[in-house]
């Protein structure tokens, strides 16, 4: 497949305040620009941000970062998009953001990923504490409320989209069927930032969907024989 030509961008789109903590994560990092060249100083900034995320969960083994410039002038306020995917023992987490500069997009994407990681970690603590009733996100993350912000719903299946055609199935994706508990499914749902998660219930063996209800409670849908 031919490589998409890089777009010549204003260098200021990558600029931001200098950091005095140029750390780097231990995990493997891959940074790609789909139609943009990523300056070295911005790659360094990405590494610094990822190092902070790694402190939340040192079990992360890999980060994949993708930068994309939207050419449509009507989308100028969200023309610079960044997608971050992390993999490791906690599972897979993804976040993306689109802003008018790559600097702002990186800040937004990292903030979302941090919130998802902290929610998942809180969920894990609740599970290990022996609570019998699944605790809602609002209850579980009450201490995070001051830093909370409206979260953008991430589309885990975006890579499977070929065309936006009305009335047709445009997304297909195979999903891991490893049996797990409801608590584990809730943790994975928080990591990917979705409002639902499909899994195979380890207790019943049935395909089950856990989903977020209004008022931040959860629901379960289970297929039976």
UniProtKB/TrEMBL annotation:
One of its GO terms (biological process) is negative regulation of translational elongation. GO terms for cellular component: cytosolic small ribosomal subunit. It comes from Dietzia psychralcaliphila. Residues 121-145 are annotated as: Disordered. Residues 121-134 have a biased composition (Basic residues). Belongs to the HPF/YfiA ribosome-associated protein family. Long HPF subfamily. Pfam families: Ribosom_S30AE_C, Ribosomal_S30AE. Interacts with 100S ribosomes. This is Ribosome hibernation promoting factor. Required for dimerization of active 70S ribosomes into 100S ribosomes in stationary phase; 100S ribosomes are translationally inactive and sometimes present during exponential growth. Residues 167-220 form the Sigma 54 modulation/S30EA ribosomal protein C-terminal domain. Keywords: Cytoplasm, Translation regulation. Its main location: cytoplasm. It is found in: Cytoplasm. One of its GO terms (molecular function) is ribosomal small subunit binding.
